[in-house]
Design goal:
about 425 residues, alpha+beta, ten-stranded mixed beta sheet, three-stranded mixed beta sheet, about 25% strand
Length: about 425
Amino acid sequence: MQMQPKVGIESISVHVPRYFVDLKTLAAANDVDPGKYYHGLGVRRMAVVAPDEDPVTMAVEAARALIERNKLDGGRIGLLVVGTESGVDGAKPIAAYVHGLVGLSGECRTFDAKHACYSGTAALRMAADWCAVHGTQHRNKALVIATDIARYDEGSAGEPTQGAGAVAMLVGDEPHVLELDLRNEAVFSREVMDFWRPNYRSSAMVDGKTSISSYLSALKNTYLTHRAASGFGWDDYEYLLFHVPFPKMAYKAFRVLCGLERNDNADDQFDLRSGPALWANRELGNIYSGSLYLSLAGLLEKGGRKVEGARIGLFSYGSGCCAEFFTGRLGTDSKNWADKIGIGAGLDRRTELTYEQYLAFRKNGNALACDGSYTGDPQGAAFGRLRKVFYCGIRDHRRMYFVNDNVAQVARNSGIETRSRRSSVAV
């Protein structure tokens, strides 16, 4: 019998946007009891992007941090896949922008994966399969990035479940963070109208009741399929992680699995097996395709040595719908992720917004989506070296990005022209 190649996540990094709104602020503006958001949804704060941030800049920040913190050789990356439902162009993928702004080799395949919040997992699974085949080649590493901005109408029921962020993962045959079990597949798909965003809208639409029902139905289906195929059951998992549109949804999912396994001690078990992974989700809100991997990163960053070698079960769900339950084993040496993920540091440097500032960010961000909106000067330049790439609007129907001096050499290596700290580039 042919041995399964070792494949999985070698390193992981999270980009945290530098602004947030406390949900008590949003609750006051919407005339809602803050407890409905804090306890009913399990969210305390939601990340907010500045007008000069977008899914591209967040992906670049996450990718560059991953490369720098782990001293990676970018020349080894032969595949770049971006999972997102926040595409910035109807044809050009976010991956193409990231490829140029990060400075990867020309011998690198690039594309986006799209299926709502399942996009990140779709990208990861494609990358893992690619790495299993290309393990002996020089460019045998894959860079997977999940980047999204969750946005709903002002005053809507979905507004408190907004968020933003990006998670970058290096995938290869040295899975120091998470070795994936590729032998047992448990996927479930069916067409359902539970969440969608028409091309003529900048904010999403959702049928909450249908979405929750579809999520839980897909969870039951994939968990039972995986259990039958793998033989893994409740006692084999030290941690169970879920897609997190809001943290209370993870609790609902956990209770469903307890019911399938006839386990009556749901609350205590949740605190042990899923709760430790949710602290970052409570701070950033929903980041769509990256929410499951934000939980993974949160478990690693806070768990440290305690989680070494643990077997985990992961459930990914994307509205529309496609879902998957899969498993893996965490690395045995926490030095491979200690001080390299970046969630805590990102949270520490955040700035809180008033409700009026939040509305202004939305308005100004929408204005930058129109042709002729190019500003020529990034609004966040005061951050200096804390920001690498800024979105500057659209000129002649082309998205424009500003690159800081401290990444100019890498940009030149990829063929992107930069002249000074105040120069702008179109890629």
